[in-house]
Amino acid sequence: MARPRTVRGRQRMYERNINRVRQRNSEYASVLSDPKSRFQSTSSATTDKDNIKTYLERPYDNAEVIAATMREAYIKNGVISKVLDYYQSIPTYNYSIYPVLGNKQYQLENNLQQDYIDVAYGLNQYNIPFFASYFFKMTLIEGATFWYTIQDNTGIGYLKFPIEWCRISSLENGVYRYRLDMSKIKAEVVDSLPTEIQNAYKDYQSQSGLDDTTKWYNNKWYYLSDNAMAFTFDQNALFNGGIAISPFVSVLADSLSLDKAKDNVEIKDKLDTLRLIHSKIPVNSDGVPTINVKTAKIFDDQMRSRLPNGVIAVTSPSNVTNIPLTGSGNAGAYDTINKGMEQLFYDLGTSSGLFGSATTSSNIVKESVKKDANWVYTNFYPMIENYYNFVMTQIKTKSKIPWNIKFIRESNFTLKDDITNFKDQLAFGGSRMNYLAACGFNPIEIVSQLQFEQQVLDIDSLMVVKPTSNTISSKDSANGGSGNKTIKNPVRGQIGRPKTDNPTDDTDRLDGGA
C-alpha cells in the first residue's frame, strides 16, 4: 500500500518543481544572449550597385540578400541609420485598455474592476515600451521579423529567428503566424530551444508524423503554435510564399551611389594635394642617356627616401617640367554628394531639413514629422495592437469579458500638442484613461500610483494649494491674508469642490466623496 504523502513531503515536491522551473528559465535566458551567434542570419550582403538592381527586379526571390544588405546599410550609411532611428523614436508607445462589452448586459461595478487590474498587471509583464520599439526597428530593417514568446513567472522574453529559417504561413485575427524550417536547425542548439520546437525537431529527424498537413508543410516546414508571431509591413507576403521585404529597399541603390560619390571625393582630395618631382636623366645629342640605368636607379632611390608624404618622384630622360594635378579630379564631387543625399532622403520619404539640411520653411519640417507619424499610426499601430489583443485573450479574468488595447496616437515630436488635444476632449466627456495614457501612465500605474497617492499618502493634504489671487476670497484679503500663521487644511483627505465657499470638516462634496 502506497504511503500517504505528508504536508512536508508535498512541500518538498513543490520546492523541487519550482527549482526545475527556475533552471529551465535560466536556460531560456542563456538562449537569448546567444554567445555563439547560432541564430545569426547567414545571407551575405552585396555592395555592388548592379547586383542590387538585379535583386530588386525579383525582390521576393532575393529577400534574404536584400535583408542582409539593409542590415549592413544601417550600420555603414549614416543617413539610413539616422532615419530608421528617427522612425523608431516617433511613437511614444503609450497605451490604454478597455473592455469589449458587446451587446450583452454586464455587471460593471464589481467584477470589471478586478478584471482591469488583472489584465493591466498581465500586460505590464510584456514590457511593451521596450519590446514594441524593438519589433518596429527590426521590421523596418529586415522587412519581416519572426519571434517566439518565452514566458515564466518573472516576465516575458522573445527568441528571434533568422529570416532564412521562416516563412509567414497565415494571418489569424490580424496576427501573422509562421512556419519554421527544421532543416536549418543544428543539433547543438536544439537543447536550448523551447519544448515545442524540440519535439518537432525529433519528429523531423525520425521522419514521423510529417504527413500531418495541419502541422507540417513539404516535410520540413513546421507550423508553430500561437507562441510564435511575425511582424511585417508588406501585406503582399501572404501572396508571395510568406516572404516580405522592407518598405525602404528602394534606398539601397541610391545609398551605394552615395558611397561611390564619397569615394570620388577622397580621390579628388588626393589628386589636389599630390605633387610630382621630375628628375631628368642627362642624354647626348642622339638622345641616349649618358649614365647607366644602375646609377640612375641609385639617384632615384636616394631622392624617393627623402620625400615627404604626398610627393612622388619621377626619373626619366624626357623633358617634363611641370605636371599640375590641382583640380584634375571631379570638380563637382561635393555637389554630387549633396544631390545623392537629397535623393536618399527623398527615397526614405523624410524631410532632409529635419536632420540639419537647408530648408526654406520650418513648416516643411513640422508637416514632415506629422506625415511620418501618420505612417506609423497607419501601418505599425494596427499590427501591434492585433498582437497584444491576442495576448490579452490568454489572461484569465473572472467575468471572461474580452479586453482590447489602444495605442495612443501621439508623437514624441508633437507631444505637447497631442496631450493638449486629449485634455481638451475631457471638457466634452472624453476619456480620462486616454488622457492619463497620453501623459505616460500605463494601465497598472493608473491604479497603483494614483490610488497609492490618494489613499496612502493622502497627497492632497501634502500638496496644499498656495494662496494666490485665484484661491483666496475677498474676505481673506480684507483680513490681510494669511500672514505668517500656519494654515491647516480643514478638508484633509476629502475630494471634489465644496458646495460652499467656506467649507468645514463636515461640508458635503459635490461628487459625494468623503
Automatic annotation (TrEMBL):
Phylogenetic lineage: Bacteria, Bacillati, Bacillota, Bacilli, Lactobacillales
Protein name: Portal protein
Region described as Disordered: spans on this chain: 26-45, 472-514
Compositionally biased spans, kind Basic and acidic residues: 498-514
Sequence ranges of Polar residues compositional bias: 472-487
Native source species: Limosilactobacillus mucosae LM1
Origin superkingdom: Bacteria
Keywords, alphabetical: Plasmid
